[in-house]
Design a protein that fits this description.
By secondary structure, the protein is mainly β. The chain is built from four helices and 17 strands.
Length: 276
């Protein structure tokens, strides 16, 4: 196993705290074959109580992937990125989908699975109703209005990439990032003292199933605060992403050592085909 130092491209803390561009200790790029040994990703991350605090990291990541949002255009395209904001053109409906979730497979080359029963896209009130927990209408915040995204019956989401337009050809991307809300548990990776284990983790896997990169998402304790984490390689090498959002499945009260986390915008590079 080869470890690589990963540098943070954008690192933003709450107002009054120091913002620095520094090496992020503990982020590991695990390489299992010669092809990926020399690939060192760039990390974009930020966390805080308002959209404006993470906006710079999100926009910087978008630019790094490609200025053009390719939306539902058939691929593969030579450049650009894809985004999923779960909002359905501003829909306020609660949408529950089974696993595997294929709603964006054809249009944006994304297939979602979970060990749970399915997924929900909903505004805050719908999130509260889906998980039968009224507090959920108060402790989360959207990044792009109006809906959030979550697995049901699990805190794990698996994402595989395919060529948009056919939905059958396996693909890889050069970067993946996501917005989270209410990540309270510290990531345990920054600073001189190691904190408790973080609750929210992103893992990126290569075309052969090898783990390329894993990192905890930065926390921002406090109801409704936002976190962003994105990782960018120089080549399209990410074929699968596993997200562990929070340390328990939604449904439990968000108190004590329990950290329930919801997800918002997913942003990733244009899927490029590969042969298994």
């Amino acid at each position: 196993m080869k470890r690589s130092m990963v540098f943070t491209a954008v690192l933003t803390f709450c107002t009054g705290c120091l913002a620095l561009i520094v090496p992020v200790l503990g982020h590991e790029a695990r390489m299992q074959d010669d092809k990926t040994n020399d690939l060192v990703p760039t990390v974009f991350q930020a966390a805080g109580p308002t959209i404006s605090i993470i906006q710079g990291a999100v926009d910087g990541f978008r630019t790094a992937l490609g200025i053009t949002d390719n939306r539902n255009a058939a691929g593969p395209l030579a450049s650009g990125r894809r985004e999923i904001n779960w909002d359905g053109g501003g829909s306020t409906a609660t949408t529950i989908s089974p696993t595997p979730f294929t709603g964006f497979l054809q249009t944006r080359g994304a297939l979602y699975t979970t060990p749970g029963t399915g997924f929900v896209q909903a505004p805050l009130a719908g999130i509260a109703d889906t998980f039968r927990n009224p507090i959920y209408s108060k402790i989360f915040q959207t990044f792009s209005p109006v809906r959030l995204f979550s697995p049901i019956g699990s805190n794990i989401t698996e994402l595989e990439f395919f060529v948009p337009g056919d939905g059958k050809t396996p693909a890889a991307v050069d970067g993946f990032g996501a917005v989270f809300t209410d990540v309270d548990q510290p990531d345990g990776r920054l600073g001189l003292k190691r904190a408790s284990r973080g609750s929210t983790l992103i893992e990126c896997f290569g075309v052969d199933g090898n783990l390329l990169f894993s990192s905890f998402v930065p926390s921002s304790p406090g109801d409704g605060n936002l976190s962003f984490f994105g990782v960018k390689f120089d080549e399209a090498v990410i074929a699968r992403v596993r997200i562990t959002a929070g340390n328990v499945a939604p449904g439990a009260d968000d108190i004590g050592n329990i950290d329930v986390v919801m997800m918002d915008d997913f942003i990733y590079g244009e899927p490029q085909p590969f042969k298994k």
